[in-house]
Input
Amino acid sequence: MIELVRPTVDLADSWWEMVEDFAGATIHGSGYRPGDRDRLRDRAVFEEWVDWLGRMERADEALPEGRVPSSNRWIVRDGRVVGTIAVRHALTPSLLAEGGHIGYAVSPGARRQGVAREALGLALALAAARGIDPVLVTCDVDNFASARTIASAGGVVEDERDGVLRHWVRTGAPARPIGPGPIETRDARLVPITPEDAAAMRAGEHRADWAEGYPREDDLDAVGMTASGPDAWSPRHIVRRSDALVVGSIGCFGPPVDGVVEVGYGLVPQARGGGLMTDVLSGMVRSLEASGLSVVAHTEPDNVASHRVLARLGFRRIEEPGAGAGAEWFWARRAGDRGVSAT
Output
């Protein structure tokens, strides 16, 4: 039986046996480096280190630069430590490039026995409990065993970067209610546009991380009322994960009225047609509905691509009273109708 156990001095002897099995190789997801060996052999220092690993799970813990809150666990089988795994609660640029949300290692003597697959499944449940969805899990491009393990957990390869395969895995965590912070989807980050960003957009500036053609006219319209700090209803940059470029915007037409909020969205031409908008709109809608809101949208009658995206996500076209020929189409999503979500 495989368990994920919080680090404890009670398993110190078994921990060191696992370390010996790695014979100096990197133990991913452990917080341990071979250079720590002599220092941690002091039992008092080992106890302090184990305590620190536990405190890293707390959001209020002061961490060194580059570290993020994380749930550190030891993989235990039949009372023996056979590996390590860590669920990171957020991504830094470095973790986004190669480290991911989950790092893990299984000792050589316990490999090819299903340990990694079972431990990763338990870690995904831990991530879901933290509200993290999707999670990024990476492995070296030539680590075929790890790639198979991640694929068996539902991992979908996004790309390869400098010899590292980057997979996204759904955890099934409930969406977080919308707020002033970014919304994470599988393929993008939805980052609120600041007043400084809005001023630069209106001034015709072009920043290095803005895709060609951004901002579009519709993006400029969206930021027309952005004067104060961003809030939940502010327009958001759509930052594509694959290249970190801003390729469009999404947002609400003001705060909700009687529990209903309208969304607007769009991408630069070169970002269309690959499913990105389905993924982005799904993430936005899930956060809005997690806040107890109903979501509606309007489209031009000839915008077939947008019609398809909305239909995939469970929106239905509704005839508005008094709407004449050529009027914008009105779409609403029925409660409980989730359509085919891409995130």
Summary: Confidence is low (pLDDT under 50) at residues 336-343.
